[in-house]
Amino acid sequence: MEDLTGRRLVVVTGASSGIGLATAVDLACRGDQVVLVGRDPARLQAAGDRVREAAGERPELFRADFAVLDDVRRLAERLRAAYDRIDVLINNAGAIVLQPITTVDGFELSIQANHLAPFLLSNLLKDRIGRTLVTASGAHRSGALDADDLNATLRRYRPMTAYGTSKQANILFAGEAARRWPEIPAHSFHPGVVRTRFANDSRLVALGMRVLPFRSPEKGAETLIWLASSDPTRLVNGGYYYDRRLRRPLRKATDPQLAARLWTASAKAVGVDA
Which residue in 5, 254, 241, 40 sits closest to 134, CA to CA? Predict the structure, then answer.
């Protein structure tokens, strides 16, 4: 496919480490202007330094905690004030949450940080976005999304069920965004099992990283970079990709009725028009 990178404005959330940082470095080296969004100021600063060292230009840095929806709203305001056009919005921020945590906004942390926050950001920026990409996961197989109760996973909490539910929501969001906003190409992807900071917080996850065939962040970012660099007219709008190929996720992640219900519930949850 034709490489469309050059001098575009690309916003990458979750850019302080992992595949977000690997993507930012690669796109900056190709000539794109990258904007990094992260939660921790020190790690965000270090990520900016790494991009500058690799590409020769310091990226803009924006701090936001996706566990706080007001942070997302402020981020959107700052991005709107700074840029008239965002050619690519990469919704990559996410987390595996090991304990049942309810955010200040009243939602289970996984579904808020991994789905509701990027849903809100995308809606607040939709008139500026050229395309949007979403980091999903094969973990959507363990999802148990209830569009009528976004906090359902708080009952009998299991970290991978909560995480999988948020990844199921990511795929549904990309598909529904493509239907509702056909002028804004939307795609989701599975990066594979990537060694990231997730492993630092859990012995169980760390053990899994040793047992499972894991990838480096650079390898995990390859499909994301490919999607961000390709002509969207040669991709399937709303499609889910893995290793640069269109894949078919489980039906619970492609059900259009569930996707529409999730969109309505998410819009109500974050206070935007459905």
Answer: 241
